[in-house]
Amino acid sequence: MPQPGPAAADQGEGVPVLVPLVLLLMVALLTGPAVGRRVLRKRRLAAAAAGGPGAGRAAWDEILATSRDRGSAVSDGDTVRGTARGVVGAHELDGPTNAAAQDALREIVRLVEAEWYGDDPPAEGALTGPLQTVLGAIDGSGRGGWRSWVRTLVPRSLLLAGKERIPSKIG
After folding, report:
1. Cβ partners under 8 Å of residue 40, min gap 6
2. pLDDT at 149
3. In this structure, what are the phi and psi dihedrals at residue 115, rounded to the nearest 5 degrees?
4. What is the pLDDT of residue 166?
5. What is the pTM of this model?
């Protein structure tokens, strides 16, 4: 019986290598947005913690992004206070069990407004505690189940990133 030539052997060996590559590509496509969102969140949290010019913007952008990721359609044309009220309502943070989150959000709004309107950037670490409290409350307000997984894998804030406008500082 004749032995297959080298060309026939090479064709059979290429197929098993292709399957893991396709699987790896599928995993990368599924997890890429979630990984990108985590990287962006870490950068914003670091910028907010560092204080100084831009810290308030980083903190505020992260609150808006987290709110969008949890299904809220926050307005980017409203004032900081108006948007904060929308975040409270959208994530049901207005109850007595969320008093700490409400206080933390008020502090963030105060610091953001001081930076934007008074040219007085937050001090190093001033946003860290309040920001963690607010983000934890927003993250905890979402419902579990398959929608939570979809929102994690496909964060709305990344999909809308190109369409966002910087809110007006007037008003």
Report:
1. 65, 158
2. 55
3. -70, -50
4. 40
5. 0.74
pLDDT on residue 155: 73
Distance (Å) of CA 129 to CA 5, 71, 82, 107: 69, 24, 22, 10
pLDDT in tens, 47-99: 999 999 999 999 999 999 999 888 888 777 889 999 999 999 988 898 888 99
Tokens of 71: 């299904």
Q: Check the CA dihedral 57-45-142-147 and report its sign.
A: positive
Non-local (6+) Cβ contacts of 169 within 8 A are: 116, 117
* Residue position matching structure tokens 């496909």: 154
> Could you tell me which residues come within 8 angstroms of residue 164 by beta carbon, excluding any fewer than 6 positions away?
76
Q: What is the DSSP string of the chain?
A: -PPP-HHHHHHHHHHHHHHHHHHHHHHHHHHHHHHHHHHHHHHHHHHHHH-STTHHHHHHHHHHHHHHHTT----SSS-HHHHHHHHHHHTT--SGGGHHHHHHHHHHHHHHHHHHHH--PPPTTTTHHHHHHHHHHHHHHS--SHHHHHHHHS-HHHHSGGG--PPPS--
Contact 52, 98 (CB under 8 A): no
What is the distance in angstroms between the CA of the first residue and the CA of the last residue of the chain? 88
Total residues found in the chain within this entry: 171
